[in-house]
Amino acid sequence: MISFLETPEARLEAEKMIASILDSNSISFPPSAEYPLSLLSEQTTLSVLIAKPKSSNEIRILRGFSGSPGGHYSIPGYVQPCFSVSRWTEVLGRNDGRIHELTELINNGRNEFIEEREKLKDESLKALSSLYRFRCWDGKDIGLPEKAPWGTGDCAGLRCINTALRKDWEITGLSEFRIKDGKAEFHGPCDARCGLLLPSMLGLDFLYADSQIAVINKKDGMLSVPGRGEDKKDSASYRFHLLFPSSPAECNCHRLDMDTSGLLVLAFTREAKRALSIAFENHEVRKEYEALLEGVLKEESGRIEIPIRLDTDNRPYQIADYENGKKAITEWKRLGVEVIDGEKYTRVRFFPHTGRTHQLRVHSSLIGHPIKGDRLYGKRREGERLMLHAALIEFRHPLTGEKMIFSSTAPF
Known about the structure:
Blueprint: E1 3-4, H1 8-24, E2 46-53, E3 60-65, H2 85-107, H3 114-129, E4 134-135, E5 141-142, H4 156-166, E6 169-180, E7 183-187, H5 194-202, E8 206-209, E9 213-218, H6 236-243, E10 261-267, H7 270-281, E11 286-294, E12 301-305, E13 308-310, E14 318-320, E15 329-340, E16 343-352, H8 359-366, E17 388-396, E18 403-407
Parallel strand pairs: 1-8, 10-17
Antiparallel strand pairs: 2-3, 2-6, 4-5, 6-7, 8-9, 9-10, 11-16, 11-17, 12-15, 13-14, 15-16, 17-18
Helix pairs in contact: 2-3
């Protein structure tokens, strides 16, 4: 379950919404007997999203519901679904009558009509699925992912996010909940359905976000910060600041190599950025990486202490230098040996004690086992990625001091 901007302000707005619904026994805004509380099932999700136009600080409140309570696709006071309701009704009506006729026949023992009914149902589902449109961080629209489970795109929070992105508003808070037995159960966006769309819509794969920090799962091939030149502007920090212009322009608290995937921490405020940057500099942040190394490491674990520095004649290549290099320490643990395309590789867990540029890649190559797919210090086959992933990070929250631990499974 993704924890995305469940801020105190968003929770307060959600509690106001819940109180209004329970007091009026109506889910619409303003309350109406046409939309009673009884329309909600135990699975219906409601949401409140706080946003503001990027050109002002005026607060806007969006409300969302999931599915179609009581058959309603539109309810007063809520955002629209991620499809055209009129077109949805039109497409649904094409085969709906015939499907009901066939169902009646089948219920009366006419099983020879099952195949026709299923064919019409599949045709309708494909046509309905094609109606969904989701706005992305860059202003482009996407449809449903291929083979997405039915109901993907119908979640309450996702509908609110889609509306905010279409209006080019900055999202500052989101709270999602279900009302059951007169009480609210709060939760975040779901992984099974929202998780298929939000990384593309937001441009980043969020694992966590509050009012101070965000933790994303950076994909390989993405820069952490903009490089030199317009063609290298796109990066994790660029996309983050585009989504949240109130954040510092340099919102990254640390960096990952472009070819490395995994956990990256970004800041919503200058204070959070400053505090976490200091924590990284003082080695108060614990990090773990997972990698596939070429060949077989016989030892169960080890420690590499080889100072490294930039090769000024061959940037950005780093080299060992026992006289002028910077201290670099990496501990590792063997996780297992794997055979890929007939070649043996060792899966390891890295525990870096320092954070030098390309440290894990350089140290691996210096002990004779480069990371698989390393174009600088090893060999990379066409279409292959660097098999290095930032799998765990632990730090103190810059505002509350709470210990935060995040993990991410290596995608290889």
